[in-house]
Write a structure and sequence with these properties.
The protein is built from 23 helices and 25 strands. The chain has about 725 residues and is an alpha/beta fold. Among the domains are: about 200 residues, 3-Layer(aba) Sandwich (Rossmann fold), CATH 3.40.50; about 120 residues, Immunoglobulin-like (Sandwich). The chain is globular. Bound molecules: alpha-D-glucopyranose. The site of alpha-D-glucopyranose has 7 residues, from loops. Alpha-D-glucopyranose binds next to loops.
Length: about 725
């Protein structure tokens, strides 16, 4: 009798052999035959049960599992509980079909990493992949098979609170992270018990909600959909994503959860997706509120026919489809197709072969030292240095007296950010605590100064007094954790409450003040940008927020992050993003050009921007050849030198502009980047490669093509500054 360990190894070997012959994803005859056989035994009741996802358990759910009414749970955690429920499904229901347990593992399970918008500023997909591998491990040993992640919605409107959950405004960068996260979660073999199946969401264009108001309507050309909002989903699919989640919003008049064009024509027919689609929470029932269904039955038919396979919390599939089949209003074949897709993923997860999780693993996995160290590393690399006048930073560790001030300087609960899964605030190290442990001999005075959003200034005097006495002040301000994420749109993006007044009071003292921002979205901080000597954008960095910020403040880490999202100067500029069109009257001195009377047209901080404690100089941008054909590669080389005193990382970014085309093209488009490390004084040749086939665009008939003509190439440290040269794509 082989032991459990060898059995698992054998299983993994066997299933990876199966996968070797699986071709591209989820195509395997042996599994299809098993599904055929099982389907042939299932009653209609058992079939619709597989399409029913329930959140949490109650007094009835055990019996419902026994009767085959529940195919999936979300929000049930802990291997003991998931095993208990799984035993009922596998050993007490008629066919023993295992349950798939899903959860929002968005930026970590128990070890919480920075929110996705923060880690998107690392420009380090390999690092993010490792973070998701940790998240997958921690979730898997806790009984979870499936994460409703990565959220890959492109967003250009920071009024939308869910901008915190995505990877910013750019489809190229968003696609890089979509791939990295799917690979991180799923690994090479979904039946490996330490991997979980991913779920790119929210399909599609949820981030374009009108006016940044969550759940609001979306209306755009299919050209825009294909060029901006679909690419990250396609990248996730190409990386092997096993499920997708349909979005809440209506898209061009058809709600995403009933949108046959996106869910079937594109996702299944064009892209050949073979996993399953889950609705968003009650998004099938919400078709009534959208006004495209008059009854739950109608909603169920529309969603199923459009391509939604599993019903999250509407209970329409499980309660209404049987009758519809009996009345001849719905073909059972359609239900069979949906059930097939759900069973396919359950087979690939290996749930039929090993349905239970080893309950002893969690203690060595959850929140272990290695995971915490990785979380600290991702956090440090997510911090964007926005300003550093006269090299105020890094602070000297020999500082005599330091004031640590602000409502977020010692707030455990906010550090974790939105969607913090099983993260616990008591496990967070705050900025104050981290500085105290880093500098035990320094006199550190803490004053909260004010709350995040009430208007009391009663602690201002005390804060001013401590700033006057201190050699430097670290002032930590921003949003509360609940102010970003789902159902958290804001019409104002300034610091809430009286925080700006506190910043002004402390800066007025003339003493050195470092402003540390904690927020889930770009904020409008023009006064701070003009008047603070140093500004760190620290987002919500998760469990290791404090140590990471302290490492940057005191030079144990040289900040290298680059913004994945533009910062507007004010809400009136929104939407504002770097890859905009030139217009026929680009902004200029002339009155009759595209600009505002009361503000510049440029953002406060541009996409790709971020400073370092050192400086990098670019020179000698050359091309291997100035002419390439449509199937050719453009190879650019540039010299980058670290001309400062600190070793550091630099993100060398490559943008292109199609100078003349049959349709107007953006002024710049990110098409490549490389993150390099340079010791002080070191210079490197950086080689960047771009495929000509990636420089095309869509027409209004959804034809993608690359047009010959002249292009400009930009290489630099952000989306504005850098070197440029021209190249040509030629016909043949
Ligand atoms: C929520 C979110 C979705 C999440 C789901 C389950 O409403 O829109 O992103 O995965 O419900 O929690």
């Amino acid at each position: 009798m082989i032991g459990r360990k060898w059995r698992n190894i054998l299983l993994i070997l066997l299933s990876s052999l199966v996968n070797l012959y699986a071709g591209d994803f989820f195509k395997n005859d042996e599994i299809e035959n098993r599904i055929d056989l099982l389907l042939s035994k299932m009653t209609l009741k058992e079939k619709v049960g597989q399409l029913n996802q329930v959140s949490g358990t109650n007094k009835d759910t055990d019996e419902q599992i026994r009767n085959g009414r529940i195919g999936s749970f979300l929000n049930v955690v802990g291997a003991a509980e998931t095993n208990r429920l799984q035993r009922i499904a596998v050993e007490e229901s008629r066919l023993g079909i295992p349950i798939i347990f899903g959860l929002d593992v968005i930026h970590g399970y128990r070890t919480i990493f920075p929110i996705p918008l923060a880690s998107a500023c690392t420009w380090d997909p390999e690092l993010i992949k490792r973070a998701e591998q940790v998240a997958a491990k921690e979730a898997a040993v806790s009984g979870i098979h499936w994460t409703f992640s990565p959220m890959v919605d492109i967003a250009r409107d920071p009024r939308w609170g869910r901008i915190a959950e995505g990877h910013g405004e750019d489809p190229f960068l968003g696609s890089v992270y979509a791939k990295a996260k799917v690979e991180g979660f799923q690994g090479k073999d979904l039946s490996d018990p330490k991997t979980i199946v991913s779920c790119p969401k929210h399909f599609v264009a949820y981030g374009a909600a009108e006016a940044g108001r969550d759940y609001n309507s979306v209306d755009m050309s299919v050209k825009m959909l294909r060029e901006i909002y679909l690419p990250p989903f396609k990248a996730a699919l190409d990386a092997g994503a096993g499920t997708f989640m349909a979005a809440f919003n209506d898209l061009n008049g058809v709600p995403a959860s009933a949108n046959h064009f996106t869910l079937t024509d594109i996702l299944r027919h064009e892209w050949d997706f073979r996993g399953f689609v889950v609705s968003d929470w009650t998004s099938i029932l919400e078709l009534l509120s959208h006004g495209i269904a008059g009854t739950p039955e109608e909603a169920g038919i529309k969603a199923l026919k459009a391509g939604v396979d599993m019903d999250m919390m509407s209970f329409i599939y499980v309660d209404r489809l049987i009758n519809l089949v009996k009345k001849g209003e719905l073909s059972e074949k359609l239900i069979d197709e949906a059930v097939r897709r759900v069973l396919r993923i359950k087979y690939y997860l290996g749930l039929f072969d090993h349905p239970y999780m080893d309950e002893t693993l969690k203690k060595e996995i959850l929140l272990n030292k290695e995971h915490l160290e990785l979380a600290r590393d991702v956090a440090r690399k997510s911090i964007v240095l926005l300003k550093n006048e006269n090299q105020l930073l890094p602070l000297k560790k020999e500082i005599k007296r330091l004031a640590v001030i602000g409502p977020l300087a010692d707030s455990k609960s906010d550090m974790l950010g939105t969607w913090h899964c099983q993260g616990r605030s008591e496990e967070v190290t705050t900025v104050l605590k981290a500085i105290q442990s880093k500098l035990p001999k320094v006199k550190i005075k803490y004053v909260k100064g004010c709350a995040i959003q009430d208007n009391s200034k009663k602690e201002f005097d005390k804060a001013v007094r401590e700033t006057k006495k201190a050699d430097a002040t670290v002032l930590v301000v921003g949003e509360a954790e609940f102010m970003s994420g789902e159902a958290a749109s804001r019409t104002e993006l300034a610091l809430p409450g009286v925080q700006l007044a506190l910043v002004k009071e402390l800066i007025k003292t003339g003493k050195p003040v470092i402003v540390v921002l904690m927020n889930g979205r770009p904020l409008t901080i023009p006064w701070i940008a003009d008047n603070a000597s140093a500004i760190l954008e620290a987002w919500f960095l998760g469990t290791q927020s404090g140590p990471a910020i302290a490492d940057v403040l005191f030079g144990d880490f040289n900040p290298s992050a680059k913004l994945a999202i533009s910062f507007p100067r004010n809400v009136g500029q929104i939407p504002i993003y770097y890859n905009h069109k030139n217009t026929g009257r680009p902004p200029g001195e002339e009155k009759f050009t595209s600009k505002y009377l009361d503000a510049p047209v440029t953002p406060l901080y541009t996409f790709g921007f971020g400073l370092s404690y050192t400086n990098f100089e670019y020179r000698d941008l050359t091309l291997k050849t100035e002419k390439i054909n449509k199937s050719g590669d453009l190879i650019a080389t540039v010299k980058v030198k670290n001309v400062g005193d600190y070793d550091g990382d630099e993100v060398v970014q490559l943008y292109i502009k199609d100078l003349v085309a049959s349709m107007s093209r953006p002024v710049k488009e990110l098409k490549g980047f490389k993150k390099i490390h340079l010791s002080a004084g070191e210079e490197k040749n950086v080689v960047l490669k771009v495929k000509a086939s990636d420089l095309g665009f869509y027409d209004h008939q959804s034809n993608y093509f690359v047009e010959p003509g002249m292009f400009k190439l930009f290489v630099g440290s952000n989306s504005v500054d850098g070197l440029s040269t021209n190249f040509e794509i030629i016909e043949k």
